[in-house]
Amino acid sequence: MERISIILALAAASLRSEFQYRANAISSVIGGMIYQLTGFLVVWIIVDRFNTIGGWSLAEITFLYGMRLTAHGIFYMCFSQMFEIDRVLISGEYDRFLVRPISPLPQLFTRKLRVNCFGDLIGGAALLGFAAQGVSIVWSPLAITFVLLAVIGGALVEGAIQIALGSLSFKFLSTITVRNTVNEVFNQYGNYPQRIFPELLQYVLTFALPVAFVAYFPASALLDKAGEVVVPAWAAWIAPLVGMVSFLGALRIWRRASRGYQSAGT
Amino acid sequence: MTVTRNWPAWVAIARTSIRYHYTYRFNAVIAILFTGLQIYLLTVVWKAAYGDRAEVDGIAIGQLLVYLTLAQLQLRFLQMELDGDIEGRIRLGQIGFDLSRPVGYPSQLLAAAVGDMIGQLPMLAVAFPIALVAGELSAPPTMTAGVGYAAALVLAWIVAALLNMLIGLISFWTLEMSGFRMIYNLVGNFATGALVPLWFMPDALRAVIEVLPFQAIGFVPVSIYVGEPATGALWSALLLQAMWVGILILIIRWVWGRAYRHTVIQGG
Questions:
Q1: Given CA atoms B145, B151, B152, B154 in this order, what sign does their dihedral have?
Q2: Which residue, A48, A158, B170, B194, has most beta carbons within 10 Å?
Q3: For B36-94, how does the pLDDT look when each residue is reduced to its tens digit (9 = 90+)?
């Protein structure tokens, strides 16, 4: 319990330090939002002109896009520092983490906050809000709970992949290009109904890189489209669980890899 | 601009830019991979939107796929870093050396941009295969389209360089540009028509984008290549680009005149 309050205090401190430069922080949030919304503009124009993409209506795709973006925003709010692990290891900052009384990973996560995550969160929530009335979902408390669990699960899937890949840095020091490329795949391919991809790619995006679990599977389940995904329908429903399990797996990988840590000597 | 008189200086500056690219070639390959990912996604999404239709609004699916592939590929190679360079040199005060050189600053920048372009050319050997796998490329349908595209590409490059230079010159007044530049890049990227060709944009949006210079970098040349000249005829499309070159040169002259005086006042 005490550990959690320390972590929260660290997180609050990194939030405060970002908002010391208020104008800069606010323009980052707005920039992050515009960045995501231009991506959405493309989808919107195409569906507006052609009515559907892969049988998904504008409201349905907006819902999918909103779920993915919200999940990504949560991921980026909590785990953005995973993208800094190379620098932390090479500069020797990791040595400092080791002499403090809580484990290094939460220290890494609370090292700094990238405020543009709030742009993703606002944008994602707005898209979800717009789409909510247009889709054929009955908004029971159960459905709302599922959406919440699904976006958290989605964030955990992205987090798990980035933590697992970041663990490789203990061995290879620099893995940022691999992680950036994977992040790019999540960011680009996660927003579309995957049935428009060739079947092989759908399997790759399910089992090799679990992009589908971030938003496509849970959105399909809610929208009554679970019949069209490459896994059995029940597997689409347990997407939030997949996020949790893969995150725990990633933590194990991290713990094992970090035992091999040798200070870079700086 | 005094390009001919200062030829050796010009060549030396261009060479430095070429070497810079050689040093960072790994990053360039990664950037091209990202472009490949984007090309693949765009072509798949548009194919899904077309469905069984062979053509929409007179645009055949094959034409559209070549359009998207070439537009993305072309934009990757028309990406310039003059603006960041200018900002960096002002921040560190190195701009003083640049201004004391006997070659005018705008033409130094242009030389750097030319070197930049030449330095990137070997990357085409990586980019073409990736684009072929990710999307679809084919020869232009007619000889005229091919020749027209070549001319339009040169003009597109000039417009891209001038626009980039103009944004960079703003750094003479303020260095807090990161937010502005991000928004500019996003709007610019969309307004080139490389993600959604102007044919398919809603009328209101298209009307706005048609008065901006960005279409001269993407939509105009690429639509010529696939045999659908942007504004009806080939000549008027090229003329539109040339007009933007003229307008941008005038603006840069005016802005540069003020920027230069601005620097002198501060540099006492």
A1: positive
A2: A158
A3: 999 999 999 999 999 888 888 889 999 999 999 999 999 988 988 888 888 888 877 78
What is A40-75 written as a DSSP string?
Answer: HHHHHHHHHHHS-BTTB-HHHHHHHHHHHHHHHHHH
**Structure token pair of residue B242:** 């040339």
pTM for this entry: 0.87
Bridge partners of B56? B59
Euclidean distance between CA atoms A90 and A111, whole angstroms: 16
How many CB contacts within 8 angstroms connect chain A with chain B?
A: 68
Which of A53, A194, A200 should we substitute to test contact with B (largest number of B Cβ atoms within 10 Å)?
A: A53
- At A101, is the secondary structure helix, strand, or coil? coil
Token pair of B70, please? 């070439």
C-beta atoms surrounding B29 within 10 Å: 14
What percent of chain B has pLDDT above 70? 91
pLDDT band at A72 (very low <50, low <70, confident <90, very high): very high
Of the two residues A228 and B266, the one the predictor is more confident about is A228
CA distance B164 to B80: 7
Three-state helix/strand/coil letters over chain B:
CCCCCCHHHHHHHHHHHHHHHHHCHHHHHHHHHHHHHHHHHHHHHHHHHHCCCCEECCEEHHHHHHHHHHHHHHHHHCCCCHHHHHHHHHHHCCHHHHHHCCCCHHHHHHHHHHHHHHHHHHHHHHHHHHHHHHCCCCCCCCHHHHHHHHHHHHHHHHHHHHHHHHHHHHHHCCCCCHHHHHHHHHHHHHHCCCCCCHHHCCHHHHHHHHCCHHHHCCHHHHHHHCCCCCCCCHHHHHHHHHHHHHHHHHHHHHHHHHHHHHHHHHCC
Chain B residues 168-227 within an 8 A CB cutoff of chain A? 176, 178-179, 182-183, 186-187, 189-190, 195-196, 200-202, 205
User: Which one is predicted more confidently, A139 or B14?
Assistant: A139
Spatial distance between the Cα atoms of A111 and A121, rounded to a whole number of angstroms: 20
Residue A237: per-residue pLDDT = 92
Q: What is the mean pLDDT of residues A190-201?
A: 93
Among A31, A192, A196, beta carbon nearest to B183: A31
